[in-house]
Amino acid sequence: MARTSRSAVVTGLGFITSIGTGRDEVVSRLRSGRGGVVPYDFCGNPNLAVKVAAPVPGFVLDSPSWRDWQWPVAYDLPRETIRGMAPHGVYAFCAIEQALADAGLQAADIGTPDTGLFCASAGSAMMLHHHVAELRESGFERGHPMGVVSSIAGTLNFNLAAHYHITGAVAGFVSACTASSHALGYALDEIRLGRQQRVIVVGAEDLNAETDLPFAAMRALSTNPDPATASRPFDMQRDGFVPTGGAVALVLEAPEVAQSRRARVRAEIVGWGQSADGYSVAMSHPEGAGLQRAMQRALGDAGVDPASLDYVNAHATSTPAGDRSEALALRAVLGSASRTLISSTKGLTGHGLSMAGAMEAAFCMLALEEGFVPGNAHLIDPDPACEGLRLPREATACPSEYVMNNSSGFGGSNVCHIFRRWR
């Protein structure tokens, strides 16, 4: 199929998040500012400093045995599929089911060489630990036959590609908190180049002690026990991020393919850019140099002037260094008197690691469709680094034409996307 467009359109969205497990609920929570952070006991240790998290309601996936897992009855997850999955595989399956229904697609529509699947996760530390411990106990003589495919970083693409009989491009992305943003960017390129007519993108992560508590050793997690203020991006009192799990899925299509089947289009992806800091294995460049380049490349790829941006969904996770770095990068790219509204929805959802980019890209599309901008939850005293940035505290009516989503991750990886309201 020859390339006919510089863009791709999104025709389906699926949400399994701490602020809702469906589009309408997510929109309502983004508008009302009602977050998903709650008191949370990771491992029964009262001395643990981390007291809050943002779990997904309706799912119980804290056992290493799939036989103990529970999920909403609306989703029919076959035994032969689930036995090779990690917990976040269940989230991802449910999100994809939603996204396919939203796009008006059936299984027969995606089991073709023209449809690809790009997944993002860090794998399941819980499942890996469990299966390796079993191996050690047996002197490495006996292990679970599905131990590898249910635990390592490719677990999503292994299981979901097999379940949905995907015969197009299949890939997994592992770049920490930019992983699903990378997946989205490369999906756009596959469609631009005419290699695929359609790509399903999904980002997902577990929420459990093995996945999240190692970040406490890095002093990256909030130790604030109050769910109402623990996640507060850009605020002077922020002290770390609040972890969350779940999954978000998007269906991307070539515009002419979507139009030929009269699909409803949620938004258009018109450009993306990426860049690395080359500075630290864990910390962002202090002045956001890499993120500046990624934003400029995304704007250049889309042919959009910074002054045309109506909204930016910031990566800001509520860590002191990361938020400051991004604020300085935004000021450098947008200018000191920009009209662009900026917010980090992680004040509501917590930080989803690999799934963050896909989740927040989908939030941007909801903002475009619904004509509003989510607020900065729990922002009381903005960091001086934010001077000149427009940071609405509450959701604001804003009919937008162009919005941008930022993602940053370990190793200084930065990815940005530009979305346009479908005309």
Describe the structure concisely for a colleague.
By secondary structure, the chain is of the alpha/beta class.
CATH class: Alpha Beta
- Which architecture would the CATH scheme give at its second level? 3-Layer(aba) Sandwich
Overall structural class, as computed from helix and strand content, comes to alpha/beta
| Terminus-to-terminus distance | 24 Å
> What's the story with the biggest beta sheet?
10 strands, mixed
* H/E series: EHEEHHHEHHEHEHHEHEHEHEHHEEEE
Which geometry do the CA atoms define?
Answer: globular
Uncertain residue segments: none
Overall pLDDT level: 96
Within CATH, the superfamily carries the name Thiolase/Chalcone synthase
Classify the fold: give the CATH topology: Peroxisomal Thiolase, Chain A, domain 1
- Cα gyration radius (Å): 20 Å
By DSSP, the count of extended strands is 14
Total tally of structural domains: 1
Report the sheet-strand fraction: 15-25%
Q: Provide a count of the helices.
A: 14
Describe the structure in your own words.
The chain has one domain: Thiolase/Chalcone synthase (Peroxisomal Thiolase, Chain A, domain 1, 3-Layer(aba) Sandwich), CATH 3.40.47. Helix 3 crosses helix 6, helix 7 packs across helix 14 and helix 11 crosses helix 12. With 423 residues, the protein is an alpha/beta fold. It has a 10-stranded mixed β-sheet with strand order 5-4-6-7-1-8-14-13-9-10, with helices on both faces. It has a two-stranded antiparallel ribbon with strand order 2-3. The radius of gyration is 20 Å and the shape is globular. The longest helix has 17 residues. The chain has 14 helices and 14 strands.
